[in-house]
Amino acid sequence: MSALLEQAREWVGKPANKPATARDAVNLPMIRRWCEAMGETNPVYTDEAAARAAGHPGIVAPPAMLDVWAMPPYRPGGRTSEEDMPVLALFDQAGYTGVVATNVEQHYNRYLTLGDVVTSTPTVADVSDEKRTGLGIGHFVTLAYDFTVDGEPVGRMTFRVLKFKPNLKQPEPQAAPAAGAESFPHPRPAITHDNAFFWEGLNNRKLLFQSFGGRLRHPPGPMDPVTGSLDFDIVEASGRGTIHSFVVMHQPRMPGFDYPLPVVLVELEEGVRIVANMIDASPEDVAIGRAVTADFVEVEPGYVLPAFRLA
Amino acid sequence: MTFPAAGQTLPELALPITAGAIVAGAIATNDFENVHHDKAAAQATGVPDIFMNILTTNGFVQRYVSDWCGTQARIAGIAIRLGAPNFVGDTMTLTGEVASVEGDRATVSVRGRNSIGDHVTATVTLDYGSAR
């Protein structure tokens, strides 16, 4: 379990925040505005006689407004740190800045009537393992709310939010080539939080690797396979190395490449290996043990790949 | 009083998702998160436009069932799960069906679909015993 998840789970069962008491009692203007926004025309929410005829003691609030009454006020610039929940702030600090509500479950003990002053008391109910979602990787945080009026329980709510790291910008896909076109776009890499530094480095004509306490690793991954550590530094390689192995591709011919294509596995002098294409070399020049140096090829505007040439 | 029967369907309701509908719902539910009213702030989180907040969806689900059951039933609970966001320019079509009837209580399954997929799947619990 990550340190972040461990910290977040310490909150489970504890108050998520201080109880919040509504600044305004249940009132007709707020009910009316809510009904207008939702297109709600049931008269028990706005008409005293209709409410009594339906068996209510008077005008009642739409039950789905349960958690509206004690919401924090609008503030230019967003909520204050006191209004933020510390368990959610933990995720913000760790880069999980996105938030989206995914589930609401409300139970109503009774309908609220005009004059009721609602107090909302949130508890952290659950923090999920890390999940991969369409929005990005993240954790689901479940909050359990108790709503009371003068100490009387009037309703409960379970509220689940996803705190996520927004997905990174991906390379723009090229327009599909016209029928019979001579050139085709290169395949695109998938940019993840683990490998983004590598692709950014290439754009700056640098060959960058993860270093876990001095042990280099490629391709990039989230964790040191030896120690399990998630902490790594990024180091720049000299670009000098030797051919450890190679193939010369003839078939199948993928669009976007020139054939015959020498593809080399290079052992860099720092001790890490990387696969790349050879440039300015004929297949007969390529041999195990030959010295090579790294270069960078902008295969399409803004899309840089590493390559090697004979030293 | 007409009591619902399992399998009974609710009339379909199509709701245009305009910027006005999203912002009116956000204000009416006291939800001032900027992704529900500020297009630039929404786009900074990687989405194309402002989108409906969950409390407004909850409100529309209540209203949809309330349109059908009128004042005869009390709403005892609403459970919703969100999927595809309701962005400006889309239309959400709500459909519903009585899922079960037990004693004085009935549960209604509600689904709200937009052009991306299911925006909401919901269960609304109705109590026909307390309204006399």
UniProtKB/TrEMBL annotation, chain A:
InterPro entries: ChsH2_C, FAS1-like_DH_region, HotDog_dom_sf, NA-bd_OB-fold, Thioester_dehydratase-like. Residues 22-154 form the FAS1-like dehydratase domain. Gene3D superfamilies: Hotdog Thioesterase (3.10.129.10). SUPFAM superfamilies: Nucleic acid-binding proteins, Thioesterase/thiol ester dehydrase-isomerase. Pfam families: FAS1_DH_region, OB_ChsH2_C. Transmembrane segments: none annotated. Residues 235-296 form the ChsH2 C-terminal OB-fold domain. PANTHER family: BLR3430 PROTEIN (PTHR34075). This is DNA-binding protein. The lineage of its organism: Bacteria, Pseudomonadati, Pseudomonadota, Alphaproteobacteria, Sphingomonadales.
UniProtKB/TrEMBL annotation, chain B:
InterPro entries: HotDog_dom_sf (IPR029069), MaoC-like_dom (IPR002539). Gene3D superfamilies: Hotdog Thioesterase. SUPFAM superfamilies: Thioesterase/thiol ester dehydrase-isomerase (SSF54637). It comes from the Bacteria. It holds the Pfam family MaoC_dehydratas. Residues 12-115 form the MaoC-like domain. This is MaoC like domain-containing protein. It comes from Sphingomonas jatrophae.
